Amino acid sequence: MRFFDIVLGAVAVGSAIAAPAGDAQTVSAKSKKASKFQYVGINESGAEFGNKDLPGQLGKHYTWPVHSTIDTMVSKGFNTFRIPFMMERLIPTKMTGTVNATYLQGLEDIVSYVTSKGAFAVVDPHNFGRYYDKVITDVDGFKAWWTTTAKIFASNSKVIFDTNNEYHDMDQNLVFKLNQAAIDGIRAAGATTQTIFVEGNSYSGAWTWTSSGNGASLLNLKDPSDKIIYEMHQYLDSDGSGTSTACVSGNIGQERLQAATAWLKANGKKAVLGETAGGSNAQCIKALTGMLSYMQTNSDVWTGWLWWGGGPWWGDYIYGMEPPSSTAYNGVLPSLQPYI
Ligand SMILES: *[C@@H]1O[C@H](CO)[C@@H](O)[C@H](O)[C@H]1NC(C)=O
Ligand SMILES: *[C@@H]1O[C@H](CO)[C@@H](O)[C@H](O)[C@H]1NC(C)=O
After folding, report:
1. Bridge-partner residues for 307, per DSSP?
2. Which of 163, 179, 279, 315 is the least buried, fewest Cβ under 10 Å from its Cβ?
3. For residue 62, which ligand has an atom nearest its CA?
4. How is the chain split into domains, by residue range?
5. Substitution candidate for ligand 1 out of 91, 103, 105 with most atoms within 8 A of CB
6. Angle in degrees, 0-180, between the axes of helices 101-116 and 67-75, rounded to the nearest 10
């Protein structure tokens, strides 16, 4: 999801409802999924909201995902929660700088809560390949940012590192170099056993994975631990931006994954659909379930999927996946149960 949506999210702040504090139930995530997917999850937004207000204030510009939502979603079978946050809020002065203890505390709290439930926490700097709105060209600085960040989570085997959300409009070789620097920085921090999700240019779209040049370029990434998963995003509206309740057709999901699936198979690689969504209507539900069935058929290369988006501040957002009353939680989730 793009800046536009995040800014919209920030606008919704005025209608924010205080998060329930309690942890309703004792639940823990199952690692072995009947659906065949290794990862089934939700993006839990909040800490990346208000991304034009840096550092921003907790409760005004941004918030953290809610513990009780994690419990609810774990009880529904989800085992992966992607936690978007801002690079600048964690390490504010420069990428080679030190962490902000206040923001770090929030990040550590949600990551440790998720992983204490046996679920995976995807640490997702939601920065689109930018730092303070400028394309990151300091590859060594980016590596340093990742070394600092990965050190914090190096001993938590349930953490997954996501190099950056949705690089776009960048030189392809720079996207390659930033991903490689992130991998090297994470491994240099002593985080040698965790999976790393790498993302591509063009908003990491699955439908453009090969045509954009991501395939040819990112095929050459090297991980000494050999634990890279290619994170692709796919929305099912006409421009693939994830801004409409309409889906192009009932088959659009599987159609948009075909070229990427062929690329994965030809090259012996694995992917995760790190963001997907569709409107709460029959055509989108057909497109989504068709896509997920196709992914199950190809579960040798597709490791799972994550819905966009959960989090307490979405209000009546078209893809809202927050219990108890948001749009997709009530209108779409019941149809997705076979794929969890
Ligand atoms: C650290 O983070 C807190 C909470 O986001 C913020 O209020 C504070 O201004 C930050 N400090 C710096 C130096 O960025
Ligand atoms: C999570 O939300 C962010 C923005 O708020 C979006 O960019 C991203 O695509 C979402 N991911 C998923 C899996 O929905």
Report:
1. 42, 276
2. 315
3. 1
4. 4-339
5. 103
6. 20
